[in-house]
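Q: Joint fold for the lines below.
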Amino acid sequence: MVKKEMIAMLLAGGQGSRLGVLTSKVAKPAVSFGSKYRIIDFPLSNCINSGVDTVGVLTQYQPLRLNTHIGIGIPWDLDRNIGGVTVLPPYEKSTNSEWYTGTANAIYQNIAYMETYDPEYVLILSGDHIYKMDYEVMLDFHKQNGAEVTIAVMPVPMEEAKRFGIMITDENRRITDFEEKPANPRSNLASMGIYIFNWKTLKEALLANSEQPGLDFGKHLIPYCHQKGAPLYAYEFNGYWKDVGTLHSFWEANMELIDIVPEFNLYEEYWKIYTKSEILPPQYLSPDSVVEKSIIGEGCEISGQVYNSVIGCGVTIGAGTVVRDSIIMNQTQIGENCELYKAVVAENVEIEDNVKLGIGEAVPNETDPGIYDHDLVTVGERSVIPKGITVGKNSVVFGITTPDDYTDGNLPSGKTLIKAGDKL
Amino acid sequence: MRAIGIILAGGNNHRIKQLTQKRAVCAMPIAGSYRSIDFALSNMSNSHINKVAVLTQYNAGSLNEHLSSSKWWDFGRKQGGLFVQTPAVTAESNAWYRGTADAIAQNLSFLKNSHEPYVVIVSGDCVYKMDYNKVLEYHIEKKADITIVCKDMEPNVNVERFGILKMNEDSRIEEFEEKPVVAKSNTISCGIYVVRRRLLIEMIERCSEEDRYDFVKDILIRYKNQKRIYGYKLKEYWSNIATVDDYFRTNMDFLKPEIRNYFFKQYPDVYSKVDDLPPAKYNVGAKIKNSLISSGCIVNGTVEDSVIFKETYIGSNCYIKNSIILNDVYIGDNTHIENCIVESRGTIRANSYHKGEDGIEIVVEHNDRYSL
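A: Joint structure:
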């Protein structure tokens, strides 16, 4: 007999296009964060730390890295005989095969998975937020109030409220109304995209709305439950929570980790964040190295200078190189005498000697000014930047580039150089 | 697979002093992120030996903790797996392991219940990478009864605490002396043996009938002329850690790029239990020169020519030089540590001064730790 009180469904299929080239080859939840982690490690670790040992991970966009990372769930202790982690990609059916067309549609297509566990409650999570949260406390709140749906919310500054889905509640935290990105918000409680449903309520709502194109929790399912008169409650969360949806917020959230006592503290004993560690050896700092205000992952070899930066695992930084205010992800090799300022360098990149990134006057990006901004320079995974190249601010390099791709060894600020694509 | 493995991990060694007061030699931390036994276990795993027994006795708890799950070395298998055997009271015996041969004798069913034709016996206190299949091939090619892996040490190394061998031109072992007062050669036994399983059972049974307990003395040396015992020369890095000086030197070897490259960058990898620690953090004031820093460390002071193990906190204005700081040590501000090994989980008060004047000092300090 299989029975789980609460199972989690983790939405990890989104591209996260506002992260630019960082998500051109991987789904956003698989993007690395905070040196050794990937974004999905945070909700997965929260699950196991909250006692939720059955997690369905819904994948769709570029799932390879995500699948390898999750495996059978060993790092999160989610390799279970009953339950554990299951990766749920869209699949062909005898009739009506389709991709996941919306957040709730993805859940709808996996009703059979959820029914296997005969749950009382289903926790809906998204794989692109950085936070530590005890879902068990939220479940207690849900039960106490006799709610059918509980939505986690957090107070945001009133002027920012118009960017979020806003919940309006009565004094008992029962939701009376809600608004999606309102011009004049009536409350500052923003939905965090974390829901607990009674399984019966969820199943009924999914079946009733199955024909809705692009079935979405915020747009369709929550309004449907509300109209039906189901008790909806807002669970207020006051801890650290960060949406790393844009390149700048991603960079900022990384940089917050290097504060003396960061608001989001990875060094606490009692709420560990787990990840798949592929590289075990310690890091080596050479006699000429300088490292200040930085976090550095396992197996790095640092011979240069690193200030205010987040460095992944297995990174090499050559002698004479200066890295400042930057994010360098796993296995990237940086040559000698380079300079990197506010660079976001993805995994397995090769930067040859004397390369300078983030130099010159800031100019808005020519192709995606909304993505590549705040003077960041972004380098996509597996890129190569040849010797002596200088790259400006708000610019992006992706692919195996040669000196011919640059004019006079230079890529000015605001330029986009993308050589890689879906072709292999 | 053609062989099963036995890792001898029971020993204590007074030459490593206070450091084994709370752990077995095989559980000694190595190179920042590993334990001594990880090397033998990873070698077994990488040699596709799927069934391995670890025979442990002295301070077995430390080792059991490390081996609480066998999955890190890929031994979580239906066929084979990792068997950690401590002495047990049985119908036949209530003795401790009285020696290496006795340890095997008390676990003879492990040998008898296997079907693989060969056994690879290794000790768990050595740091090296090796494909045991190469020794096995050599063993078969030489039609040997027992093959002993051995190594020519540098002339300046004191080899008197090892087994000393002398081979003829065919590599057959002619002389074998255990821990001689004066060594006659520089070829030492690495404590790695390959032997046919049935022969081993036979020799062990005979040994225990005669109340003999030591594998080297009562089997290797005693059978030296009766059996075909061959030596296999190991050319690559190999180091035994069972004295304070060797332990210190072995850890410091990892500051050399070629050693790190050999162990960490080249196939195959060395595995260890994953600790889920955050990345190392360097605050303002951190100055690190020629050192290894492990995950979970927070550094505020100066570290030179040292190996810092996991989860160590180094306070502001500290000066750590030519030292080894074991796991989870808290070092208060303004502390000076030079030529020391600091025992794990220690708490060193601010403004302390430790310097090994002639040789390496072992620092064991357990003060109250203030933590949030």
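Q: Anything notable?
A: DSSP finds nine helices and 28 strands in chain B. The mean pLDDT of chain B is 93.
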